[in-house]
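can u do me a favor
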């Protein structure tokens, strides 16, 4: 049996056949882009017409040549039309524009000690994804919203558009006075526009200044009739740009923002580096997108108090805040280094979850991340975390970059120890602040702080594909009081996947005592002997859950029953799932009843509930009904789904009372779907009335529609 499988995800294949469904090795090899200048500052002035969906702009560029005899430069420019380039002395410069770039000839040569300043004037009338003009709808006002990731700043700003160069910026934007403008950095001022500049007297000019360097994909321009909900962390502005009608909910949804910023400042020993922090709602955004000091979030981020228990965006919000250090302060040098941004931010949101909600919640979060990666590894492909084969940079922003990398960092932390690990992260941030970085920079910092050569670790877990697959067995010799554990690594049959050098904790559980012994695996197979006072009630492989792994480790019914009641949350979940092999034994149902009735973590109760519901007969119906009052809305929702699947008309009255009394939109929605499964035509009017109930993202209305379809 696979002991790492969560009851929340589809069971993965028992063997890794791994004919990869997506051959990522057919993608082209990409290398870091070369450049012949260092962009220093962009002073971007825009006149934006939201009605006509167009802008006129200019970018005053300050740069320094990286080599002598530079007499021209090429800037990225797509969709926009350059109509003039002006030197610092006011003279016109010759230029040529292609579909992707504009090449500017300076008319003289510059050396590496020189500073070049010139202005590119342009027009943008073509709709593009880099700067979206979004029409008003019943759910959003008219807005303009940038999306510069990964290389779309060039679609509205002529610039060098690759992350290995960082610039400071000014964004000076003129719009109709009814709109507000957000960009990076601090707000210098908002002034009426002189008639000489704009014949429309009802316009205003917003001036933002980003005084610390950043990469171009982190530029944010957001324009709309926003309400700005103001907050602060000390003297630093912390604001929330939302729609007028959800400003009150935004105060609640974003209330932890200041705490999150402070949490990371302390955790990483590096104070929040930017002048302010804004969060802005964008209609097109599905999740979140970091931009320096000004994160974009989808509309779903604004939840009311009832929605929080099921649809909270807290982890998305804190993940994007973590990017202000991991991705913005330090930034991946090239797109094969995606983990420098995303693995560190993903591990950061785990660290916050563990701190904020407890050890069980953190462990469950990390298990979810493991399963996300394993799902991709089984069903799509395996690749090294650092990987230079891609068609588009976005190809590498996958479950290898986010959750796998986070789990690799968790193992590195275990090996180095907490103090050394976090000192390494802090040192890395301080040493490479405002610079592009790659994995070798981080590897060097690990050596400098810890004194340990960890190249072997990075070779295995960052530069090689795959993960460990273990077959574990044990035998107990009563006369010698000796436990023998045999561990076999089976993953080396897959291309490029190594036999790991890796530490493993073995836990020996006795009544009232646990003994943990660390062993190091260095070969395909290892056998380890332990003298113990008696046979353990449970032998736990990977005590502490540090490894990204699959493991087959057969246990007896007695061991699983003990584990279900006495292990950590990951062990309890695993045991509850594995007990399905013994589902006909009364000891199994009793173990599930105990977990449903008394486990401290909701996911274990939910797993036990789901397993009990699959047993034949009505014996456990009272327990299922009792679970509709569980403190966790997720358990209540599962109980209601189980009741609905019985298609029993006598349950309709109970389901209606749940819909009318429960505070959870998810539970209310499940109650309606269950009414659809249990009721008849007589429930049609009730469901039509329920469909009018206001709820987060109209989840209740949609559920009522589903229920009506079920009735018909």
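np, heres the sequence
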């Amino acid at each position: 049996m696979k002991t790492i499988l969560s009851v929340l995800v589809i069971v993965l294949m028992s063997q890794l056949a791994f004919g990869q469904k997506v051959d990522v090795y057919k993608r082209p090899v990409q290398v870091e882009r070369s450049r012949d200048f260092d962009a220093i500052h962009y002073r971007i002035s825009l006149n934006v017409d939201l009605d006509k969906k167009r802008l006129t702009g200019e970018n005053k560029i300050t740069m320094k040549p990286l080599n002598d005899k530079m007499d021209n430069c090429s800037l990225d420019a797509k969709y926009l039309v350059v109509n003039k380039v002006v030197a610092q002395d006011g003279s016109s410069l010759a230029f040529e524009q292609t579909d992707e770039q504009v090449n500017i000839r300076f008319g003289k040569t510059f050396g590496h000690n020189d500073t070049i300043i010139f202005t590119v004037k342009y027009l943008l009338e073509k709709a593009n994804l880099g700067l979206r003009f979004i029409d008003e709808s019943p759910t959003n006002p008219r807005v303009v919203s940038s999306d510069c990731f990964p290389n779309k700043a060039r679609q509205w700003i002529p610039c060098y558009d690759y992350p290995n160069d960082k610039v400071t910026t000014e964004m000076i934007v003129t719009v109709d006075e009814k709109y507000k403008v957000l960009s990076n950095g601090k707000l210098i001022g908002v002034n009426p526009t002189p008639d000489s500049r704009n014949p429309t007297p009802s316009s205003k000019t917003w001036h933002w200044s980003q005084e610390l360097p950043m990469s171009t994909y982190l530029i944010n321009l957001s324009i709309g009739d926003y309400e700005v909900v103001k907050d602060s962390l000390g003297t630093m502005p912390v604001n929330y740009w939302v729609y007028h009608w959800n400003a009150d909910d935004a105060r609640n949804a974003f209330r932890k923002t200041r705490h999150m910023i402070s949490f990371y400042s302390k955790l990483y020993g590096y104070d929040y580096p930017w002048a302010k922090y804004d969060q802005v709602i964008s209609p097109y955004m599905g999740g979140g997108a970091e931009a320096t000091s000004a994160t974009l979030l989808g509309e779903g981020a604004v939840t009311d108090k009832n929605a929080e228990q099921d649809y909270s965006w807290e982890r998305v919000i804190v993940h994007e805040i973590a990017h202000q250090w991991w991705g913005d302060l330090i930034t991946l040098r090239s797109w094969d280094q995606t983990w420098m941004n995303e693995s560190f931010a993903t591990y950061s949101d785990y660290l916050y979850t563990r701190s904020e909600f407890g050890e069980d919640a953190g462990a469950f979060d990390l298990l979810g991340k493991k399963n996300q990666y394993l799902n991709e590894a089984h069903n799509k492909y395996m690749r090294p975390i650092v990987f230079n084969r891609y068609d588009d940079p976005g190809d590498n922003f996958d479950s290898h970059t986010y959750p796998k990398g986070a789990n690799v960092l968790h193992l590195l932390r275990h090996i180095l120890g907490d103090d050394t690990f976090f000192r390494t992260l802090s040192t890395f941030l301080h040493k490479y602040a405002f610079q592009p970085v790659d994995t070798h920079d981080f590897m060097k910092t690990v050596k400098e702080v810890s004194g340990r050569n960890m190249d072997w670790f990075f070779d295995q877990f960052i530069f090689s594909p795959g993960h460990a697959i273990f077959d574990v067995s044990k035998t107990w010799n009563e006369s010698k009081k000796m436990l023998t554990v045999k561990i076999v690594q089976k993953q080396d049959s897959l291309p490029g996947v190594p036999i790991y050098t890796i530490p493993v904790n073995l836990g020996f559980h006795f009544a009232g005592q646990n003994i943990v012994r660390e062993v190091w695996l260095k070969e395909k197979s290892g056998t380890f002997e332990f003298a113990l006072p008696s046979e353990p009630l449970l032998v736990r492989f990977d005590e502490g859950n540090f490894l990204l792994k699959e493991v087959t480790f057969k246990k007896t019914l007695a061991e699983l029953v003990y584990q279900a009641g006495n292990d950590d949350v990951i062990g309890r979940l695993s045991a509850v799932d594995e007990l399905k092999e013994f589902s006909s034994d009364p000891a199994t149902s009793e173990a599930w009843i105990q977990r449903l009735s008394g486990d401290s973590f909701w996911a274990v109760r939910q797993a036990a509930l789901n397993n009990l519901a699959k047993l034949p007969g009505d014996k456990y119906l009272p327990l299922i009904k009792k679970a509709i009052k569980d403190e966790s809305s997720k358990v209540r929702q599962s109980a209601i789904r189980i009741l609905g699947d019985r298609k029993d008309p006598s349950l309709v009255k109970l389901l209606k009372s749940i819909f009318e009394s429960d505070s959870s939109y998810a539970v209310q929605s499940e109650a309606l779907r269950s009414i659809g499964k249990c009721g008849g035509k007589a429930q049609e009017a009730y469901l039509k009335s329920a469909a009018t109930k206001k709820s987060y993202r109209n989840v209740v209305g949609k559920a009522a529609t589903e229920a009506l379809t079920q009735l018909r």
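Residues 1-18 have pLDDT under 50 and may be disordered. hope that helps!!
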